[in-house]
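User: Study the fold:
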Amino acid sequence: MTEPQDAAARRAIKPVICYPVDTLPAPDMTLLENARANLKKIDEVLVPPRDAACFIVPAGHFFRIKSVEGSQVGDLNLWARDDLSERFYSGKTRALYGTHITTGQRMWSSFPQLRPMATITHDTLGWYGKDEFGGSVHDVIGTRCDPYTHQLLAGGQYHHCCHSNLTRALARHLDVPVAEAEQHVHDVLNVFMCTGFTRDTGQYFMKASPVRPGDYLEFYAEIDLLGALSACPGGDCSSEHSSDAAACYPLLVEVYRTDADFLDALQLPPRNGYDGTHGT
């Protein structure tokens, strides 16, 4: 195809950030850091390899996703504990912060609430930054491995994809059929996963995660949360996912309480202030 004469000029136009975040409500990281100084573990859930588990975190508490035995990535879903229609909105979180998130950034919920669900308060992989391939960790671009795409590309029936893992875990937690639970499973935060887009074709790529036993990603629960975490069948995602061949390890979810004074002063983030009339 022949380029137009002004092709170079069109390409040279400088980009504009779609959502400047200067006015975005920011977490009080000093307050949260002070609260972190007095954490006491009150619960833990071990997520088996190639499977998922649910956990509950009350508002004002903290939780950690921790590598315990080997390099392993996890797919995280979050819901408002008492209203599953309010769930993590990965697309809007990505539009606000970029393709990967880390300390001081938040997981935002779906419309119409659009409020902070969880704030990242500590990231032991924060040193990684962006590598020479454009890769980074904790992405909000991958949707989760699923049996539908696996069947489309490779054929067969694979039941330990993260989508299926999350579906089974939620069905067990809610005591509902898997078809009902599946409707609530949504795009994830890919915890510890190292990903990016290739420069030539723009395709989503993954590479071996830099996570090691002892590493963790820590969150502050802005509201009462129900979470589900899948220990991805891709292990460290260095070669493939949706596979029984990769070495896989468990992930540990730890829930922490802080001082009573902090919890007594807790204020939940308000629901979005839009009036919902949509011009009618």
